[in-house]
Design brief:
Rossmann fold, two-stranded antiparallel sheet, 33% helix, seven-stranded mixed β-sheet, alpha/beta, globular
């Protein structure tokens, strides 16, 4: 089973690495980082580099696609190379998925037309403008269409565990959850816009603007 995670300049690290750490534990799975060319791709702040081991042309029939997000997605909406690749491989995947603003790239490729989907809370309007219908859920599934989207950053781990359940079984997903000791007990309860107070939302907006 080949699981492809496309990378691009200024992607968000956990969007890619969180699902990778879950899915690479699934027996028989081969996770490949794919991009325009082989070699290192830097994250949105430039502090971390991850290597693409294959080009889009070399990965033409993955079983699963996990598209990460990051500020770099904005420049790639409708991009001929990545959109063309998504359009070409999706008809043959078991599941095509996204994390965070990776949903914008699925939408830009026309894969979310008329479907409900989720993304990072800061990209709701962009997602809706691309033909999807945003819903404020952590993971949104359209199993007949083989599409799954997840919200911001950390939700990619939730989605990856759900993927393991769909690809294998519930016990496999629970076993991997145990292996990574994924037992969230955050010290604060401000992980969604609905829960965050005004001061928290203001500070988050300041941090987000500083990354542009």
């Amino acid at each position: 089973m080949q699981i492809a995670i496309p990378l691009f300049p200024r992607f968000t690290a956990l969007d890619a690495v969180g699902p990778y750490d879950v899915l690479q534990r699934l027996p028989g799975a081969q996770v490949v980082f794919v991009g325009r060319q082989r070699g290192e791709v830097r994250t949105e702040n430039g502090m971390l580099g991850v290597s693409c081991d294959a080009t889009f042309d070399e990965v033409d029939s993955p079983d699963v696609v996990v598209v990460p997000g990051g500020i770099g997605t904005r420049a790639l909406i409708g991009d001929e190379k990545i959109s063309g690749w998504l359009q070409a491989v999706h008809p043959h995947t078991t599941f095509t998925t996204s994390v965070c603003t990776g949903a914008l790239l699925l939408a830009g490729a026309g894969l979310l037309d008329g479907l409900t989907a989720t993304t990072h809370w800061s990209a709701v309007d962009q997602l809706n403008n691309l033909g999807a219908r945003y819903v404020p859920e952590r993971v949104v599934e359209h199993l007949p269409q083989r599409i799954i989207t997840s919200a911001g950053v950390s939700s990619g781990i939730d989605m990856a565990l759900r993927l393991v359940e769909l690809l294998a079984d519930r016990v496999a997903a629970q076993a991997i959850q145990l292996l990574i000791e994924y037992d969230p007990q955050p010290p604060f309860d401000s992980g969604s816009v609905a829960k965050a107070d005004d001061a928290t939302r203001t500070r988050a907006a300041e941090f987000r603007t500083s990354r542009k």
